[in-house]
Structure formats: structure tokens, C-alpha cells
Amino acid sequence: MKALILNSYNSPLQLQEVEKPVPASGQVLIKVRSGGLNPLDLKIMSGQAGHAQTKLPAIPGIDVSGIAEAVGKDVSTFKPGDEVYGMIGGVGDNQGSLADYVAADARLLALKPKNLSFHEAAALPLIFITAWEAMVDRANVHEGQKVLVHGGAGGVGHIAVQIARARGAEVFATVNKRHFELITGYGAVPIDYSATSVEAYMDRYTDGEGFDVILDNVGGKTLDDAFAAVKRYTGHVVSILGWGSHSLAPLSFRGATYSGVFTLYPLLSGNGRSHHGEILRQATALIEAGMVKPTVSPSSYNLETVMDAYREVAAGSAGKVVVDIS
């Protein structure tokens, strides 16, 4: 089969012929239709992702959509011909999606939403799983709450906004002013972070009490701002980028709580993989019900033009970038 190979860090991917994988016990052989790219893929290619190291030479690509061609022993959840998607590889020793075929752990997969193309579906797994772990697993967002999403127009952010709305919460999102229309289209209230202070939007939208749940997709000072804007006693802050050093004093003085999300752990460790499949089944249900839809870049790429796709991600795409394989 044809596959893109990362032979050394900080070098272009090479299109090569390699052996087609055979599904082992518990795996599904997928005829890849599309592979989604994330900012994390850039860090992996440059060797800067200390938390997501891969073993060279490697086939990159974290997200996949495609058709099940064969199943290994002990797989009863999928059959040949099923249209599937998942966050399946590109880190550790897990083959990624930028190839004609990939043998993936069946526990990481779900049936693709019928109302999405393969191209659209490949944009979803990492961002949806991350957003779900934050909004549902950690914060248990529910009706009657006021939820603030920092970075609401980003990959994880725009999905988190939609999940919170689907669960009945009143949602606010800090974004650049050019993304106001996008956020209002999701039924949320946009906040121009460059023109409004934390105190001002906290007073305006919560009468100074603070938000029930705050999701930080930015890190740094934004996480510090979240600690100061969360509701006293019952509030909860979640971050997907809580890797720096922060003072917990503002959070402690408000008597609130904090948790982090590390979406890659099941891929790297092998533990908890079935939960990723469960989350994507929830994704399929919400998407088929019309409650969640990914924002996808209009650009089109293939295995030959993949470096252009990486450049679009690096430049800050207006939507998830997807590479179509077949």
C-alpha cells in the first residue's frame, strides 16, 4: 500500500510503498477514505510533542474515517463494509491514518454518522473526544448552568460549545470578533476577549457570581482568568492545556475545583480505549440528530499534496483540515 512516512523529525513526509497491514486479534482493517489533521500533528512531525512521541519511521495521522475491509479475531462489533471513524494512531507505536489502509483497535472505533461524508467525519474524533471528556466526563455540564468556553471557535472549542448547548446549558464563548457569527450560529453568546475584561463579562453575564463551568482551550493567562471567573463553591474549571505553572490561590479562594484532560492517554497506554469508542457513539447520535456539526476547511488535499495541508494547519485554518486518501 501507499503510505506517508515520517523518517526524521523536521523533515517532509515521504510517500512510500509499504506492506499492507493484517488485522490482529481485536483489530479492524480500515480502507482509509480520509485522515484529519490537528495542531498536534505539527508538533509530532517536528519532534516537539514530548507527551505524544512516536517511533520513527512512522506513519502519522491521528484521526481516520473509512470502510472496514476485514476484522480480526474476537471482533464482533464491526463487520466488513461498515463505515467507521476514530482516533486511532499517529502516536506511540500506533500506525496513523495517512495511508491506504490501517489496522486499528476496534475499541477506538464507532460507526460513522450517516449524515456526514467521510471527509467531514475524519475531522471529528480527537476534537469531539477531548470536548466530551471536558464537558461531560469532568464537568458534567447540564441544564440550568452557565458555561464559558475559552477559545470557542477552535477545534475543540466549537465542539464543546455545541455539546454544552445540546445538554441544555447556557453557553458563552471568548472569541475573536470575526467569529461572532459562527458562535451565535451555535446558539451561544460570543465575548470579544480582546475588548472585554474578565470582571466586565463576569458581571454582565453572571451578575458577578461567576460561571458554573469554564473550559480553557488556550492555557497560560487564560487559565488564570478562568480561576478568577468560576462560580464560588460549586464552579468547576477544566483545561486541555493546563501544562504550565499557575497559582491556585484564586481558585482556592473561590472554593471551586479544577481538572485536566489528556485525551491521548488511552492511545499511549492501551488503558481505557473502549471509552473512546463509547464517546464516538455519543458523537454519532448527536450528529445524526442535528445537534453537533464540525467546521471543516473547504480545502482539498491528498497524499501527494499533504505538506500543503500541514502548512494550512500551521497558518491557522478556519476549520479542521482533512486529507482525502481514496
TrEMBL record:
Keywords: Oxidoreductase. It comes from the Bacteria. Residues 8-323 form the Enoyl reductase (ER) domain. It holds the Pfam family ADH_N. GO terms for molecular function: oxidoreductase activity; zinc ion binding. InterPro entries: ADH-like_N, ER, GroES-like_sf, NAD(P)-bd_dom_sf, Quin_OxRdtase/zeta-crystal_CS, YIM1/Zinc_Alcohol_DH_Fams. This is Zinc-dependent alcohol dehydrogenase family protein.
